[in-house]
Design a protein that fits this description.
Layout (H helix, E strand, L loop, with lengths): L3 E7 L16 E2 L2 E2 H9 L8 E6 L4 H7 L6 E4 L4 H10 L8 E6 L7 H10 L5 E6 L6 E4 L2 E5 L7 E2 L3 E4 H10 L10 H6 L4 E5 L11 H10 L3 E16 L3 E3 L2 E3 L3 E4 L6 H14 L4 H4 L13 H13 L3 E10 L9 H12 L6 E6 L5 H4 L3 E13 L1
Parallel strand pairs: 1-4, 1-6, 4-5, 7-12, 17-18
Antiparallel strand pairs: 2-3, 6-11, 7-10, 7-11, 8-9, 13-16, 13-19, 14-15, 17-19
Bound molecules: cytidine-5'-triphosphate and magnesium ion.
Length: 384
């Protein structure tokens, strides 16, 4: 198996990005930029033998919290990018991998396709780089004066990772004068006359450079969702007994509710509302009354199941609003206990759970106290 190492250069100052701490350690979507990038690099099919992070002396604390729990080698970098790259390559002397990929810490959107294509290109070339064409017109300028056109067709933008055969690039670097400094690492290969393959770059693989790039990166890391709304309705009939289950709590009463399970109309309405938001049938499809498993079942099992279906879809239950329609029992004294129980079952905070009640002014079956109804509306965030 081809042995591959990855060097993440992160020893820069991040001057153009501004901010309180250097850009590679800033949090984006809850994680340090550098950590996002390391995780993205791990998408390489041929698992990396080793990941080396080149950091700037003085950033030790920022670095150690950014890489907590990850298996990486760390090595201090230098004043120029080339010095930092050299430090990274030196750290691999004992390992001596077949290939090495050198990547900017500030490019968290590198993907498996770029990584794998670069490695494939190294079978026929000494080095490989992701390159992109330019869409805008390109012109030379003289101070503020617009001059002649540059031939855009002959220009490409170079991204990272840039990939090399380790022994070749190491030998070239060793032969360079100490003060040598190149814009990027492919320039070193080109300067030494190596054959360099261009593979397709990716616009998404941009380098976080300016202050506004953080918001852009955050948006790109936040998966697109839409809000699904579901409604549910359930009715159970009163019968003789000594209490009813409603929204997951037992309310003592000289009657009960008739049903196959515990007849908790509140939980059933909420459960059905969730199935509605998922367009996933109804409670009877998932828990058929013909199935004796659910006889006298506590209905929190149904609601937990529905919440679990949301999670399995990559979604999130966001809000519950349930209305209990009955002349008896009085709901208000139990409302907060119900909300607390719903919070325990669903994991939602209390601020996202509403329990309301109304009578029907003695009208209809609830007015005649023949039964109790519940209706629920839920909102669920689902991936696009
Ligand atoms: N880099 C490095 N060592 C240096 C300079 C840069 O390891 N002496 C790294 C940076 O940390 C970055 C990558 O090279 O991950 C690309 O450089 P750039 O985007 O220019 O980052 P900075 O130099 O940190 O930013 P700026 O130029 O805005 O100061
Ligand atoms: Mg720089």
């Amino acid at each position: 198996m081809t042995q591959i190492a990855q060097i993440l250069v992160a020893a820069g100052k991040g001057a153009r990005a501004g901010g309180e701490i250097p850009k590679q350690y800033r949090q984006i979507a809850g994680k340090a930029l550098l950590r996002h990038t390391l995780e993205a690099l791990s998408a390489l099919e041929n698992k990396p033998l080793k990941q080396v992070v080149v950091y700037a002396p003085g950033h030790e604390d920022l670095l150690s919290s950014a890489i907590k729990g990850l298996e990486v080698t760390v090595v201090p970098g230098g004043a120029t990018r080339t010095a930092s790259v050299k430090a990274g390559l030196n750290a691999l002397r004992d390992t001596s991998p077949d290939y090495v990929m050198i990547h900017d810490a500030a490019r968290p959107f590198v993907n498996a396709e770029i990584l794998n294509t670069l490695i494939t290109a190294l079978a026929s070339h000494s080095a490989a780089v992701p390159a992109l064409p330019l869409a805008d017109a390109i012109k030379y300028i003289d101070n503020d004066t617009v001059g002649r056109d540059a031939n855009r067709d002959r220009l490409r933008r170079m991204q990272t990772p840039q990939a090399f055969r380790y022994a070749e690039i190491m030998a070239i670097i060793d032969a360079l004068p100490a003060e040598a400094s190149f814009t990027d690492d492919i320039a070193i290969a080109v300067n030494a006359g190596l054959s360099v393959a261009m593979v397709p770059g990716d616009e998404r693989n941009f380098k976080v450079t300016y202050p506004s790039d953080f918001a852009k990166a955050e948006r790109m890391m936040t998966p697109a969702t839409y809000t699904a709304i579901g409604s549910g309705y359930d009715v159970h009939r009163y019968t003789d007994g000594d209490g009813i289950w409603l929204c997951g709590i037992l309310i003592p009463a000289p009657y009960t509710l008739l049903g196959h399970s515990d007849a908790d109309a509140g939980l059933h309405a909420i459960t059905d509302a969730i199935f509605g938001a998922l367009a996933d049938g109804d409670i009877g499809d998932h828990f058929p009354p013909s199935d004796d498993t659910w006889k006298d079942a506590a209905s929190d099992v149904f609601l937990k199941f529905a919440v679990d279906r949301v999670t399995k879809r990559g979604g999130q239950l966001q809000h519950i609003d349930v209305t209990l329609i009955c002349e008896k029992p009085k709901i208000k004294p139990h409302r907060n206990a119900m909300r607390t129980r719903l919070s325990e079952i669903t994991g939602l905070p209390l601020s996202r759970i509403s329990v309301k009640a109304t009578t029907t002014e003695k009208l209809g079956f609830t007015g005649r106290e023949e039964g109790l109804a519940a209706q629920a509306v839920v909102t669920v965030a689902l991936p696009e």
